[in-house]
Amino acid sequence: MRELTxxxxxIQTKRRKAFRSFVAGIKPxxxxxxxxxxxxxxxxxxxxxxxxxxxLELFLKNQDISELDREDQQTFHTMLMYYVGELLLYRxxxxxxxxxxxxxxxxxxxxxxxxxxxxxxxxxxxxxFNIIQGxxxxxxxxxxxxxxxxxxxxIYQKNE
Length: 160
Description:
By secondary structure, the chain is mainly α. The protein contains six helices and three strands, in the order H-H-H-H-E-E-E-H-H. The chain has a three-stranded antiparallel beta sheet with strand order 1-2-3. The radius of gyration is 16 Å and the shape is globular.
């Protein structure tokens, strides 16, 4: 394992300290996002994430995210990242954690892993940030469901 740079050590320390508040803010942010999307009872986005996926799929399919200003794009990205992470935990069990492997593409990202279901190796994890990054770069007609399915297929392929 390589030595961390001073900047990486600072980011690591900062993200370790912020982890509890990061996790505590996820569900309230998803509820707020569901309200923005127009869900009548936004709490259902947390309680029934599969149903919210259907709503998001319809909402996002024809949204031109590139028309949003940079700050709104970042907020949108963050909200989707929270939701995708929570959906994956709902489906597969597991936890959020800070990836501290410097050789990983997701180094110092908050990721989901230690999956409890489906015989997935405890060493495998998914990076909701990168999943949504790919989604945000796709054109109108995109499918959040498809992007998530591809990410899930990845964990099963790596598990074999």
